[in-house]
Amino acid sequence: MKAFESGGMTSASLHMLHFVHFAFNHRGPLGTFYDSAPLQRNKRNFLWPPPFGLSLRHHPFMGTKRKAKPAVDFKKTKPKLGKGKQPANNATDTSFKAKAIAMPQQSIMLDRSQTATTRRRQTLNDLMQQTHHPSSGARKDAVMGMLEIFTTYQGFLEQNTTSLINTALPLIGDDDVHVRAAIARYFTNLLASIPDDTFAPYASSMLLMTSSAMSHISMFVRIDALQILSLLLDKVPSIATQDWESALDAKHSSDSHGQRILQAFFAMLGVAAGAQRARSGLVATSLSTTSVNLSASQRLTVLRSLYKFLSEAMHDSQSNGMPLWCFQSAFASPSDLEQFEQLFHHSSLEAYPWTIAQVPGASTHLVCENLMSAARVDQSVDAASESVHERLAHVLHASLLSTLLDSLPAALAPDGSSSDVHADLVMHLLRIYLLLWRRIITLLIKTRAIQGTDHMPIKSITQLEQLLAHLGPYFTGSTDGPQVRLELHVIYCELVSLCTMAAHERAPSKHLPSVLAFLHTLLTQNHAALTHDLYQALLPTFWLVLSTPIDGNVDILSALLAHFDTVQNRALHTVAFHFLARIAMLPTFRSLQVQVLPLYTPFLRAAWHTWILSLPRLLWQSATYAVSSRTSSSSFEQEAHAALTLAQHILEFLHCTLLPTRHPLFEHEALVTELAPRVAPLFHVHHPKRGIVPGPYRKLPVPTQRMAEALVQLIPISPLR
């Protein structure tokens, strides 16, 4: 104990001594411990000796950690140096701060009774300030508020055009999708309400912001900017596509709207690097990896907008009328081609003196002599333009073809099912191909006619052949199935026609026999599926088949003449008449360099005779519909105008056919004799009960009446006065 008090022995040692002492002095007969000694507490408040049966390891003295001292209820906090006196724990903070809230749009000091406001009592100035708000919801509300104001108050748009346009322009590339959707709706209504001449000064700034949004880092912003581009292409197509060729010309860089927009399309399709290599004259073979981030729907949106841009840039009007470009290869003289294109044109009404007093005789006014003027060499063909189109096709080919190969299995599944998105995607891909190659082949044919040679191949024709090789397995030649599949077959037929026309040796393509079988089946067995658009799209293929020495072209011409009598649709009747009438007028041109052998087939003369005898009935139907008194509406007025135009063209064709005494396809005397009773209902009809009933002739416009009276001079008909 003395050692312990002096510090020589530790606490654990002392406990062990006590335990040994207890074990030897209190040991029973069986080696157990008896609790014979009274329990005492040491100065650390522990019982000692340990109770009977308590193991040494459970003794409190054997612990390695000390128990924490109990917390003191009231402890005085010592202040630290430099901290000062701390507040009490239960003290209440009574301090406060005040800030001012500015709400100018709700100011009660302004008189808004005479100002144009929204339903929330916001003026245009309030909304213009709100377009810069950090909140996307506030910016969207501001756009919709401006839309509400100029659509509600009449004359507000004319007075605030500049503010309404310039305020909304920065929001075209907004980061929020809802704001961009509101902007698209806003400009759709705004541009529809502004005249073209009024909008012209703002077109450049709007195109600049649109092209900037098309180059945004976010692909979603780029896609949404295409909606604004579509509106601008409808409003100002010439400004939007201005100098687009410079995007592919390394020697010329104009930094125009068309160049920036086309380069933005290249970036979205992943061909930006390829376009730059093409501008430098290098071969662009690799694709950018940025294109893999586009989904099928996004790629469809881009291609639809690109097709619209290229259509406006190349002034493609094939969808609005007959594709006369396919006839360019038939004429060696550009003047004859020009005269051929002027047939059945609105200006043709002034080409002839359509009055009875001035109708020339057949001996002095021969159609053949009138149409066959001296050949004039037109040197206005732009060789650089052709090079630009070929470069564009070359740059886009890899991206378009890869997308096509990915989408074809889903668009044209073997079981007949198809995905609408992929089918529409394939459709726009092939339309872009058609647009480019139609332009390339047209310029090629024109250049061949000027230089007087057929040996002028196209270097990039292998790309078109590669495209047809991939499309061939999907061309089944069947006319059954969904309308999408039929439309894709029609586009394939036109691509085959273009490839054949581009070949300098004019050799029939290996794909042409399957196309021939498809056309014959469509005209003879499933002609009900042949709509106006499909028939018009097939016209280049029809001409190719007729002008190519291939077995079966005579059957196609016979099927075309027989199909004319089965047509019930007026629009389809119109395009079918224009095509067959132009085919019938081809032998009257001396510079015809293509031998259309089916025209001179003997057994087809009867089919031609039957076809021309059916025209007076179509003439009477069109004239009657044109002068019929129905409820005046815009749609009916358009249809009536189209019917009147068809009647005028039929009169013109009959006059041109009957005026010369000799025609390779018709017998003049027999034709005049049989046409007379068929044309008479145009002037009058002998009714069994009502007597003589006047025909639609009296209600026709004066120019059309003069055309009908001029026809009377060639056939024995006495019109009623």
Helix content: 40-55%
Radius of gyration: 45 Å
Q: Find the count of extended strands (DSSP E, 2+ residues).
A: 4
SS-derived structural category: mainly alpha
Return residue spans where pLDDT drops below 50 for at least 5 consecutive residues. 1-6, 29-37, 279-292, 350-385
Q: Distance between termini?
A: 157 Å
Shape: elongated
**Hey, roughly how much beta strand do the residues contain?**
under 5%
* Count of helical regions: 29
User: Biggest β-sheet: count, sense, barrel?
Assistant: 2 strands, antiparallel
What is the strand arrangement across the widest sheet? 1-2
User: Roughly what is the average pLDDT, rounded to an integer?
Assistant: 77
Describe the structure.
A hairpin with a 3-residue loop joins strand 3 and strand 4. The chain has a domain at 2-61. It is an all-alpha fold. The chain has a two-stranded antiparallel sheet. A two-stranded antiparallel sheet has the order 3-4. Helix 26 runs antiparallel to helix 27 (634-658). Residues 1-6, 29-37, 279-292 and 350-385 have low confidence and may be disordered. The chain contains 29 helices and four strands.
